[in-house]
Each structure stands twice: as C-alpha cells, then as structure tokens.
Write a structure and sequence with these properties.
Oligomer: homohexamer
CATH class of the largest domain in chain A: Alpha Beta
Largest sheet of chain A: 6 strands, parallel
Shape of chain A: elongated
Order of helices and strands of chain A: HHHEEHEEEHEHEHHEHEHEHEHE
Structural class of chain A: alpha/beta
Number of domains of chain A: 2
Strand order of the largest sheet of chain A: 6-11-10-9-8-7
Number of helices of chain A: 12
Strand content of chain A: 15-25%
Helix content of chain A: 40-55%
Number of strands of chain A: 12
Largest interface: E-F, 76 and 76 residues
CATH architecture of the largest domain in chain A: Alpha-Beta Barrel
Radius of gyration of chain A: 23 Å
Chain lengths: 283, 283, 283, 283, 283, 283
C-alpha cells in the first residue's frame, strides 16, 4: 500500500467526483433531507472466489461527500470473498452516501476485478520460479490503482512508466541500428540505477543481447521450447521475461520453461468488473 | 463528436502522458536520435468485426509528444475493421512517436472495445423500438470518451452524471418515504428542463409512479412478461427503461417486450480491449 | 443549499483570496501583531427589507485566513433584515480577519443583492401559478453562488448550464431549418432524461412546436394577451415560460396570463450590492 | 490594455466556459450540423451613450469554442455607442459560435456596464483636478477585467489588491494603537516602493497623520467643507482621496473641494449590465 | 512571517514532493514496515555562526508524508547556531519521515543559506542609516521563501515583483525617450499607492530625476564618492538605493556614503547551502 | 535535451512569470508604448570560461510575454564563453521583452552556474574511469532544469527522484535490521527494472553487501585508500559510487581510487549564478 499512499489520491477522487456529480446531485438534493443520517452496506454480488480490493478508498471518497463518515471495512484487502458477502458498512450523512456511491463502486469494481484476475494467473503458476507482472496497458489516469490491485492479487509490478525502467523494444533497436548499439547507448545514457532490459524476438537476438551486456531480456512471443533455449543461453544471472498473448491456458507451460517474469496485459486492459451494490437505510 | 469536442481533451491527454512518461522516456532518449523522423503504423490485430473508435485522438496525443505530426486516419470512426487492417499512419519526430505510443493505444483499445461491444448489443435488438443506452458505470476520468464510444457503436447516452438527469432510485424512495413523496419533491425541486424518471421493482410501484406523474420509469430486473405488463399500464407516452443484468442472450426478448431503452453497464464496466499495435520505421 | 455544497467552494474562495491578497496583506502585516486576537462584526448598512444571503461562507473564508475562527451567524439565510442589523460576529486571529474581510464582503454583498431582488419579484407574483426562475446571465465563475441566492430569495433555478437542459432557441431553429426539424433532432439526440424546450416568438410557432411534440415552450417577448392565447393552445400539460425584458412593473400581468415560469435576467446580471461593513475590535 | 494582457485571460475564459458548457452544449449538438459555418453579429440593444468595452475578448472566447474564428470588431474599445449599433461580427464554425455566446456576452455586458458608469462619473467632474478611482469591491475572479473597464471608461485604478498598496484603515489604527504607531510601523515594514496612505475620519486625524509623515490621506465620509479644510492642512504635496457613499449627485461638489482622487465602489459592485444580443446566420 | 503565511505554502510543498517522490519512494516502501514509528533528528553540520531559517516548514512537509508528525523545533527562526547543533526532532510514521527528508532539507538548507548571508551583510553595515534589501534575482518558484529568509536574516524586502513597485530602469528611460517623460508617464499611469523610483547611472541623471519629481533613486554602480554627491543633491526626503556588484568588502563604504538602501543580488542568486543532515531511529 | 523536452516546461515558466509579474508589469505598462518593437541582447558579464546553458528557454519565456519573438542564440548549449560575449539576441514586442527579462535571466544564470561548476569537476577527473553525477540536493521545482544543466556541463544524472532508483541508505538498513534484510526486501519488492544500490560506511558493510547481492554500492565518506579496498572486494562488475563532502581539491584522488561514479551535491545546492545582463533597444 506504500507506493499508493504517496500519490495524490484525493486529487484523483476529487476529479472522479467532479466528473460524476458535476454541478450537483439533483435527485438526492430533491428527495433526501440534507440533515438525515444513514447507513450504507456494500455487497459483493458474485459467486465465491472474488478477491476484494480497494476498501481503503471508501473512507476517502465518502469524506469528500458526507460529513465525517464512519467506515467499517469487513472484508480485508486481498481477501477472497464468499458469495454475497457484505464488504463494508458506512455510516454518515445520507445524502452524501448516495452522492458518492457510484464513484466508490466504480473504483472498487475495477480494482477487485484486477486483483481477481491477477490471483487466477498467480495460482496457475504456483510452485514455479516465475512471477506475474503487469504492463503499461492500463486505463489512463488509473494506473497507480491498477498496479496496486495487481500487488494485492499476488502479482508484481513492472516499471510504473517510461521514466522508471529501461526497456529497449524492437522499434528502439531499429532506430539505434542494432542490438549492440542500442545496449551501449542505453548503458551510457541511463542513470546507473537502472538495469537495461531488451526485447528479443529470436534466439539469435538473445545471443547478441547477452554478448553486449543485457542484464534482462524480454522474450517476445516465444514458444516454451524457445524460452528453455533462451534460459540455457542466458544462464541464471540474467532475468528473462515472457511476454505476448499469454492466457490462463498457456501460462503454466511458460512458467515451467524457466522464465523469471511473465507479463500479462489482460490483467489491466480487459478487466471484468466485480458486481458490487450499495444499499442505504435511514438511521 | 460534438459533445466530446467540448471537454478539455488536451488536459486529459496531458495527464495521461504525465502518468506514463513522468520525468521522461529514458529508453527512447538513450537509443533514438532526437532529430530523426519516422513513420508509425497502427494495426488492428483482431479478426474482422471490430468497430474502430478514437482515431481523432492520434493527432492530439502525438501533437503533445512529436513536433507537427501528420496523421492519416485510414479507418473511419465507427467503421467495422477487416482482419489485420492498418488503422492509421503517423509521420513525425521518431522519438515523439515512441513516447506517445502507449497512451494513444491505451485509449484507442478501450474506446474501440466499447464501440465494438455496443454494436453487438445494438445489432441484437435491430428492428425493435428499443435503444441501447449506457450507464454511469464507467472508468473514473474517462467517461466522456466511453460515452462517445457508445454513440459511435450505435448506442445512445443516458445522463452524463448526477447533474444531468433526475433518476429516483430505491434508496431515494426509501429516504423520501414513498414513491409519491419522492416524485413530488423531485418535480418541485429540479429545474423544469428535466424529466423525472423513477426506478420501480414491481408493477405495483409502476402503477403508483404513473399515478403520481412519472414520465419515465426504470424497470429494475423485471422479466419480459412483467415489462409487457408495465407497458400496458404506462401507455405509450411514458418512457420505459429496462435495466439490470442484461446480456447479449437475454436482450432480444427484453427489447421485444416493448421497452424504449435498455441500459447495459457491461458496455463500459467490463470492456475487452481491442488488440492494437504500433510499428515505427525510420524515414 | 444541497447543490451548492457539492461544488468546490474552497477552490473558489482560494482563488478569490489569491486575487485580493496576492503576495500578502502588507498593511496588516505591518500594523497588526500577528498573534493578536480580535472580534469582527458584520453590519448591514441598509434600510429594512434586505434579504441576507451567504452567511455560511464566513466560516470558510476566514478558515483560510485566520486560525480556527469562531463564527456566529446572527441573521439566518434568507431572513429579511432590520435596518442596521448585525449579521454575524467572528472571533479569530485579528490579522486574518482583516485580510479576509473584502473577499467575504464582496461575496455576501452580491449574494444578498441577488436574494433581495429575487424576493421582490417573487412577492410581486404571489398567488399566481408562476415561478420566478433565473437565467445563465450570471457573473462568470460565480454562477453556483448566484443561483443559490436565487433559491434563497424564493425563486427557482433554470438549467445550470448548456449541459443540463435542452432549450432550442431561434438560432438553433434557423440552423436546423424548422421548428419540426429542431424538435425531432433534439428528441433523437438528447439523453431521454431531458425535456425539450423551444423558444417561440409567435403563436404560429407555438402551434408548430406543439404539433411536433414540444413539452416546454419559451414565449419570447410576448404580450400577456399572446401568452393567454399560448396557454389556450398548449393546454395544461405543456410548460410555458415567459422571457424577455420583464420588470417589476410588468411581471404581475405576465404571471396572471397563466405561464408556469418567468425568467428574469436582471436577478443576476444587474445586481445592486447590499451595503455591508465589517468592524474589528482587539480582544 | 497592458496590465490586462499579462494575466492569464485564457485560464479565466476556460473556467467560464467550463462553468457554462459543462459536459457539452446538448442543444447545439443536437440541432446544428457540426461542419456548418456561420456569422454572428453582436448588437447593443440600448439607447445611445453606452461605452463599449471588452471587444478584444471575442477572439479569445470563440477561439476556444470555434475553429479559427474571424472577428471584426466594429466598435472600438471605449467608444460611445449609437442606439442599436452592431459591435462586432464573427465568422466561424456555427456550433462553436452558439456555444460560446453566453460567456462572451456575460463578460462584455459587465465590462461595458463598468465602463459606462465610470464615464458618467468622469464626465461629472470634468475640469477639476480630481481623478475617479475604483475600489476592491469587485466580483471575485473578475477584478482584472473590471479594473481594465474602469480605465477604458476614463477612470484610474487604485491598488489592485492587498499586496500592491499600503492603506491603513480605521481597524489597523485601532490595532496599532494610534495613527502615529500605525504610520511608523508601516514605514518600517513595507517595501520602500510604496507610499503610505491612511484613512482619516476627522480633521484631527488628518493633522496627526500629516505630523507623522503620511503622504496620502483617505478622507472617509467627509463633507466638501471638511475636505477643503483637509486640503488647507495638507498643502499640495500630500495626496487626498475622498471616499464613502459618493454618488453622481454629490461628486461634483467633492471634486471641487480640491481632492486628488475620488474612489467609487459603485463602479464595480453595483453594475447595470449593458443589453447585448447575438444573432447568428448560417453561411 | 506574516506575508509568508498567506501564500499557498502547501501547494508549493506538494509540488516539491511530487517532483522528488513521483510515483513513490520505492526504497522506503521495500525496506521499512509501513506501520513503524520513528524519530528524526535534524543536525546542522557547520561551524558556529549559521542563521537557522525555515523550521516552521518541517511540520507542513511531514504532515504531507507522515501521519500526524510531532515536530519539536529546537533552534528558533533566525537564531545563530552552535557547531553541530540539533535543530529539530520529529516523531512520526518512519516511512513518511524518510520520504519527506530531502524536500525538507533542500528547503531549509536554502533558506538558512539566505538568512546567513543576509546577516553577514547586515552586520557589516551596523550603525549606518542603510538597510540591506533583496532583489528579484531569486530562484523561480521560491521567491516568497527566499524573501522571508532575507527578513529573518535582518534584511528588508524590495518589491516582491513587477506589480508591487515602480522602478524605472535604463531600458524604460530609453523607451520613454527621457527621464522626464518616463517619470511623468509613471506618475500618471501607476496607482497612486506607489512611489516612483528611477535608476540613474550619472549625477546628471540624478539631477534630472529630482527635477521631475522622483521620490526614490537607484544609484547604479556608483562610487561612494558619487553617492555622497547624490545625497547632497537629493537632500534627505528622497530615498537613495545603492545597487550593482556590491560585496561584503565594499559594502561598509557604501553604507557610510549615506544611502538609505543597499540591494544585494547575491543574497539570493548565489546561495551557499547550509549543510543539514537527518538521522532517523526506530522507536 | 530529450528528457527535458518532455516535462511541462511551459507550466514551469508560466508559474515563474506569475510569481514575478503578478497582476502586471506596472513600470513597463507606464513607460513603454505597447506597440513598440525592440531588440534585446543578453551578455555574459564574466571572465572567459563560463559554460553557457539554457538558451533554448529564451524562445519559450518570451513567447509567453511578447508576441512572436525571434530569438537568435549566438552561444550554443554547453559552449565555453569568451569574456563579455553576447549570448543571444531577441526581437519582439518591446514591452514583453522587458517583462520577461528577469525570469529568463534568473533561469539562465542558474543553469549556466550549474553547467559551469559541473564542467570544472568533470575536467578535474579527466582520464579516469569515473563519471560525475548529481544528487537530489536541488532547488525544489527546478530539478529537471538543474539535472539537464549537469548533463550540459559533461556530468551524468543519478536517479531523478525516489521513484527512479533504489538506493538503500543507512536509515533504511537500520529500519530493515541488517544489510542482508534490506537487500532481500528491495530485490523482492522493487520492479526488476531497477538495480539495487546500497550505502556502506565501512568495508565490512561492503563485504556484507556484496555477499547479499548488491550490484551497486555507495561508499559514504570513505578515504581513497578505503575506496581502493572496496574496489578490490567488489571486482569490476559492481558499480562503486563515491559520495560525501567531495570538493574540487579532493576529487582527483577519489577518481583515481577506481570508483565508477562520484556524486557531488554542490553542483546544484550551492550554485554561483553566472552574471548575465539584458539591454534593450527600440527598433
């Protein structure tokens, strides 16, 4: 939760509320007494197995819409949920609970979706040396939350963005002229705090990369057999990352091919939202 | 495209680039000559049938990363794409093309995903009186783009947010004490430019809503048979909206039950990203 | 007060203080000990009859300039004020009270001015079916406060802005080609949560509008006699709004002509500020 | 126009448009073809004598809503307008002209109102040594525009805000203990680039202020006779400013009493908007 | 501290943290338990004589990174520090203390550097009539803090920026055509709350400036002898400011030449940072 | 220049101008005709040897204050300057040139100061394997510019901030319990794109760090002799960084001790501004 705590979450939530509430929640203003208090209950409307994520946001969202809400998170971050479980209860100004409902649920349904998908991939490779890592294929503006959800689901984070990792891709190799040139330029230019990772599409490229000092290699769309060969070439000190069109069906074989990291775009680019609902009672 | 043109798209794109690029694209800075020019080609890596959406963003994204890019959109907004089609070509400063790639693709893969899903629902109810409409279950910060994609896919937009529609839900009815009270309060309070829509879970509620002047009724989780009865009660002047757990399998029967609107959360909350790739060549 | 509570008031106040205080209140910094405490008293320097509005802002303005101010609002929101009445007392850090004075008074003198003018119009049509509504002729940046003051004065709000109502004006009719075209396009395009209102300058246009499904009609610069005829044509279910150059002298006759709404730009575009003063004593 | 040019006008206009347009101009999007071009004509619907102000804003407002508008300002900044005059014509994308109309007019009606009122006061004291100056009683967020309009009307600006002038008021004197203390503290503390002005309510205070080095004196609510005496005490080198409840009826006598400056809050706090209208034709 | 209190310090600190922390403090997140508490001690690693400045920032910086930090400032604002002194202790969430360390120290080392340098110049002219004043040669974005540090060091502030003082420089004189023209234009245009200061490079210019009503004169790069002559010409009522390449070696003679103000760019443009360190212990 | 190009420079410049110009440049507005054109010449008032840096900013600063300025940069980025050289000429609106002068010079005098200092350190270690690197001891808000100036001076950048490098310091080791724990936690937690660097104060710590997989080691305040021993322990594959109180006098011996990197805080925390002046002529 550490990294997440340091982004300006409130700014993100304020923008989300500005988008949804705009000039005001007309329906609630019309129908709910502004002084009334209420209790909201958030329920997971899914069969067992969902990984819940994002509960800590409830306090912050409702603090922006309801005066001094009291939040009780019943399901912990990363916990697997029983069918129909109540995830949290919030006491507060009734009108504010209703106004904040959709922003809160939109974020939790996304984050729980990411965590749940990640867990499935993590479980699929249990016992291997590989880690599941995310990609930069996230929803613009929501990357910190989605990468946090990957961690909650048991995965690991790849670089946050273009400034926190060196990853030489095919296009960079073409621009630099060769694997050798690209690697040398990167080692010269980039701060020494970074490893230098390079994408390879063939075993010949893997050999060239190793010859010129790559310390991490991304194996793009290789078969498990090719990956095994890459491992043999690379020895144990060089990190190998598998990437490209990996699914729950194919991932076990890939992990068993001996890679260190398997990056899966679908964790964040094609999320199935978890179905959450909020019911409020006047108290 | 009209509504979309009026939001501050550049602000959204700048924030998206700030998130992804941060302090700078280290890899590109290291490996690509800053003066080099290049041509990027965006390809749809999917079987036929995808609805392309978001092409107009390319010019704006790359204008922020590459000096005076020239964009040729080959696939039009809303066009169904052949397998492997090239969607667009962009000429510009090579480094800038690489730096903007991911933000551009992240947005287009999402918007094309929304448009494609919408089209499937729209096709499924062809010939009926019903319209497909979206919901507020969108990704925070991206609602304007997602609602635009729904229109490109042939759907219609429900209210943008809480300030552009009156929709009295179960929780509001409970807070106001009765359907009657809620409707009266809403009609008195809300600007006269709004219709007043109310959610009903039973036919008895539908009758009560009609009796107290509702002009739109959301039928929550009703069966097609119940919806037919609701139509009989409501006559033709009152708008009926079907909502709740609607899938591609169930939607035709619902549309044939005579509702005016069918709202589908999955259009935007559980989007499968369209697979796009960008390849760059030095020119 | 509900809608108002949801805009970012503090942001508006911070900008107002930035404008007035800039790099700092030099005079106060020079002449007032920074630790001194004081009591400020805000007085209405007007004859009886003023409607006071905006008192809730005092706490928020002075919270931004003075540490933990204690505000006692003596005159309630919307109360008619006796001559020379003390409206509020604020205890706090003396320097901060002086620094925040002008921003606080500038807002309250405007809002009380709007509320007072609105009350006069509301009183003038007492006993008729008509409501006083505001327009979009407000001071840029201050619309939410001005529309709130209209409600406090007993008026009602028209749409907040261009995104919260459909109002087809003469220019739109010309662009669409005809009343019929404009109405059909609006009904097809706009979310179903909106009524469709159209501006008519003649009774012939009123008839055409009714024939093509308008549910609200703005009668532009019509005489009371014409308005009566419009009502006869429209029956009771269609909302009629009178607009255009309406004054306190002419408004009663208009209200008695049977319209539902009378919109008055002068409520907000030509406000006479209420004269307020603040005196501070060291405590 | 110099000072004005340096504030971030575009930021102000963007906020004004965000307030008015919100998520989009639904009516225009529905009824106007997005590619259509149009010509807008802005007319002053008032008898002769209005001082026009703000024309330079048209280009900037419509640049934000319409692609490459061509603006012809027919009435110059500060020109007195004939009855019914056309002030400006704008060619551009028709939809954008309609969307920007209200923000443009709201600003011009305010600024022309301020300039017109200022001109009346300036004319009333023609031939005397006095200048009309404004106050800080402005609409929060719009001060730069209002102070600019005062200059266009022939008036002069008092300090912009609390950081651009030292003006010791009654409350500061009380806090500092005496006129002497307040003046000494101000001269010690404030940057030497400022004159030190002090408010006096009696001639005795004027004498004390002069004795302790005041170089400008604000005469608060004095009669013309008292002002004459103040001038006699002060000699010619000390600036005298008359302030407090000054009207068009009383101002000539005040100017003739020999003050240098007359500050008038009503120039900006109680503005009567100038009636402007915009008609658009399709071209 | 008054003026400083009124700028938006938190905004500045938030931006500083955003710059340094970015997406998160990876090292701390990895190595420090998020719940651990700690005590930080800030030490001045310099010989005696440093003037400490900026201690009040510690509470605000760490409030943004650590939950409810308790700050004990041991060295007061402006106090001269013994060698190796502990300046402050902060108890708080350990991870947050580490994350905020660099931003806090970067600001304090700068401000203490400014205050220390200022004190040296102030001491050097003790007993003369002259004041040390700063210039606009500050680090963009940090001017308010640097000008505050000048005051803490015993200096005075010149104008904050271009809007809080009239200072006619050589370039302005050239543009206006003559000293006379420049002075007349400035007196006519500028709000009466400002004195008018003019830069003179020769005694002839000084005479011309006096003849046309200058009330402050900046003596640019003059010798002490020339300054004495300028004083003789100006008499006592006109403020004289010495400026241009003044060092600790030359300043005493300048002060003794009878000027009122000596402006020193080096106070802020060439600051030697004070060496501060922070050590944390787990508690 | 690549990394720099991607931050929002204009935003930084706008804030810098807002700080310096505030509500407007009163002196220039008063004395310079707003239509007048001028030519500005920026001169380096220093003996030979200065490294010029920041010239590319001139176009952007003056674009914000003067309409369409034409900038001719005469001295290139990183070029050593002859005594009294003209660095650049700018043609533009005269008033805008004067208004932007100070912000432009403040940035260039800082950046040239950083580049000049860096060059001296780089020259001092010529012929060794070591690189000069910067630190995070920068002026808050200006880090990107300062780190760019370090590169222009021939140095290299360390991590930009806490999110772009793992550097385990003494405080982290204490919190984690041991070098071993800290290294293991960092390798597990941090994205694999980062190397793991650790600060060591003794050779014993160096040994422990190597034993547990550190790939970079910061040698804190070690003597050259200790550094030689550290190199012997580390072999050639582990990066060694010298840090702590390094001066121009001591640096050569350090570089010759065989470290890879020498980090110098004084490059950015104690910058002597380069003396630049701008003269303008009317054209």
């Amino acid at each position: 939760m550490e990294l997440l705590r340091q982004i300006d979450l409130d700014e993100l939530l304020r923008r989300a509320l500005a988008e949804d509430v705009g000039q005001g929640d007309i329906t609630t203003a019309a129908t709910v007494d502004s002084a009334a208090r209420g209790r909201a209950r958030i329920t997971v409307k899914e069969p067992a197995g969902i990984v819940f994520c994002g509960g800590f946001l409830l306090e912050r969202v409702f603090a922006l819409t309801s005066s001094e809400p009291a939040v009780r998170t019943i399901i912990s971050e990363g916990e697997r949920v029983e069918a129909g479980a109540v995830a949290a209860e919030i006491d507060g100004r009734l009108a504010g609970l209703l106004t904040g409902e959709r922003v809160a649920l939109n974020l939790l349904q996304l984050m729980s979706g990411v965590a749940t998908a990640t867990r499935r991939y993590v479980d699929a490779i249990a016992g291997t040396r590989a880690r599941i890592v995310d990609t930069r294929k996230t929803h613009p503006g929501l990357r910190a939350l989605e990468k946090y959800a990957v961690r909650i689901g048991g995965g690991f984070n790849h670089r946050f963005g273009l400034d926190s990792g060196v990853l030489i891709k095919e296009n960079h190799i073409a621009a630099a002229g060769s694997v050798k040139n690209a690697l040398e330029r990167a080692r010269r230019y980039a701060p020494h705090t970074f490893r230098v990772e390079i994408e390879c599409e063939t075993l010949a490229q893997v050999e060239e990369a190793i010859a010129h000092g790559a310390t991490s290699i991304l194996l793009d769309n290789m078969t498990p057999a090719e990956m095994r060969n890459a491992r043999a070439l690379a020895g144990d000190a060089i990190l190998l990352e598998a990437s490209g069109g990996i699914t729950l069906d194919s991932i076990r074989a890939i992990a068993e091919a001996g890679v260190d990291l398997i990056s899966v775009g679908a964790l964040t680019h094609s999320v199935r939202a978890v179905d959450l609902s909020m019911r409020v009672e006047v108290v």
